[in-house]
Amino acid sequence: MDLRSLRYFAAVAEERHIGRAANRLHMTQPPLSRAIRHLEDELGVVLFERTPKGVALTAAGRVLYDETGTLLAQAERIRSRVTDAAEAATLTVGTLADAAEHVGGRLIPLFRARHPHVNVTIHETDLGDPTAGLRAGLVDVAMTRTPFDATGISTHVLRSVSVGAIMRVNDPLAERTSVSVADLVGRKWVRLPDGTDPVWTAYWTGGAPDTALPVMRTIQECLQAALWNGTSALAPVDQPLPDGLVAVPFSGRPPSDLVVAWPKAGRSPLVRSFVQVAEGTSGC
Length: 284
Known about the structure:
The chain is of the alpha+beta class. Helix content is about 35%, strand content about 20%. The protein contains eight helices and ten strands. It has a five-stranded mixed beta sheet, covered by helices on one side. Strand 3 (about 90-95), helix 5 (about 105-115) and strand 4 (about 120-125) form a beta-alpha-beta unit. Helix 1 (about 5-15) packs across helix 3 and helix 1 (about 5-15) crosses helix 4 (about 60-85). The two termini are about 45 Å apart. The mean pLDDT is about 90.
């Protein structure tokens, strides 16, 4: 016997009619009748006898109904206690800069609907950690951008975005349909924090960083350096820009992927659920 079969049995016993019980359970009558017959076969007894108005419990059926009420009530108490315990569950989500904002509008309500009692903690990292805390073990799952060293990390692509060279609107190249590294030779490039993932650094900088320049840790710092000092920087083409800047498509770079990322080892049920919900927002 399983709880579903017992719930079916209890509905028929209380409604005293297969059709009414099926409506109550939001199912059709044939599978409900089969479930009752299967339960009778499993127990080796007749649970209902037909009457002109529907069905009535047999002596064996009345015993099972009394026991079923107790069992289903206990199952509901167990469910309630588990739900209460889940209120203490916490999921730490890492995000790189504004990566989460690009999908949060759909992801957040969908995840909250599935896990209303889970406490979600956000850990935002700067441009020096493209894994948004995963590599350091600070978060359970992350919303970030590629490319980075993905050793030990699984990812699912939510959206791919081309990148552009950020420059002033009055720059001689600002009207170009695209620019390349060769077009920007000799220019100053933003400097990311020392020790940043080499794969990440090579992608987001078009040339050797000027060590005389200050370290840039946020997207806004990079944009302001471009605006005030003419420092060259790359950013997704859908990155909101302050007045005075433009993003010119940058050739020679594949698109950067907005991804949900998680450790390959030890993925928890909450992380699996978060990834499943995030996958449902892909392309949105």
